[in-house]
């Protein structure tokens, strides 16, 4: 991990929160270097996002959750997106999710990036309360 180019950006938080380092490293590299199909544009066609197209990518410390989140903007989108990485092996609670929203200053939605040991990532879009699904 220390030899990877992203380590310079992640080093302050991965050393502070070593238990969350793997999922942060995996998610950050997926967003910055990989291609992702988890976001859908307004017209509902699947769009392959070259993650290099994201702008304003930042690593945000979530001290109360002992981890970091990632924020940024995808191409052709003005809103800032928030991604909170976690491991498939972790147990999450509603309180934990509420804390994530609170520490990110209550965005309308966050994306939970669940990573596994086989390097796969599943992204879930979460909103506060009950939100009518888009049709």
TrEMBL record:
GO molecular function: nucleic acid binding
Annotated protein name in UniProt: Sen15 domain-containing protein
Family of this protein: Belongs to the SEN15 family.
Limits of the tRNA-splicing endonuclease subunit Sen15 domain: 50-134
InterPro entries in alphabetical order: tRNA-endonuc_su_Sen15, tRNA_endonuc-like_dom_sf, tRNA_intron_Endo_cat-like_sf
Species per Swiss-Prot/TrEMBL record: Mycena indigotica
Any Pfam family the entry gives: Sen15
GO annotation terms (biological process): tRNA splicing, via endonucleolytic cleavage and ligation
Record keywords, A-Z: tRNA processing
GO cellular component, one term: nucleus
Superkingdom as given in the UniProt entry: Eukaryota
């Amino acid at each position: 991990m220390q030899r990877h180019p992203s380590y310079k950006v992640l080093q302050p938080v991965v050393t502070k929160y070593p238990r969350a380092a793997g999922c942060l490293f995996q998610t950050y590299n997926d967003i910055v270097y990989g291609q992702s199909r988890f976001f859908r544009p307004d017209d509902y066609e699947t769009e392959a996002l070259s993650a290099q197209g994201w702008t304003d990518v930042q690593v945000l410390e979530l001290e109360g959750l002992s981890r970091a989140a990632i924020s940024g903007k995808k191409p052709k989108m003005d809103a800032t997106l928030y991604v909170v990485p976690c491991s498939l092996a972790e147990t999450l609670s509603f309180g934990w999710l509420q804390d994530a929203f609170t520490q990110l200053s209550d965005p309308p939605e966050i994306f939970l990036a669940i990573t596994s040991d086989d390097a796969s990532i599943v992204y879930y879009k979460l909103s506060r309360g009950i939100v009518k699904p888009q049709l």
